[in-house]
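note to self: dont lose this again. the chain is below, predicted strucutre after it. 107 aa total, dont forget to put it in the shared folder this time
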Amino acid sequence: MAEFGPAEQRGVKLVLPVFGAIEAERVLAQDGLFAVVGDKFPVTLGHTLIIPKRAVKRFRELTEAEKFGLLMWVGWTQEFLTKEHDPPPEDFNLGVNDGPAAGQTIP
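---
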């Protein structure tokens, strides 16, 4: 899934079509389709975004391969956060803000 091992996944600055420049220290992992990034303004400890590298406005615009990859990254992120934090998270909240009425703030 990832292009490189966990030790090399941090510290890689990204520029994404919709989000722009992502600070290197926020990049946790990536592959050809997605970047896993710590939220710039986290609501809770471990607040993480899984951002498509291709500019899409809605979930329905993702290809089937991208939808599958997104779920793979959700699993990876949960494992990563569980290992990264002490104590580990007890539970996870998964959210998709798909459109302005659903709370989407990035167009």
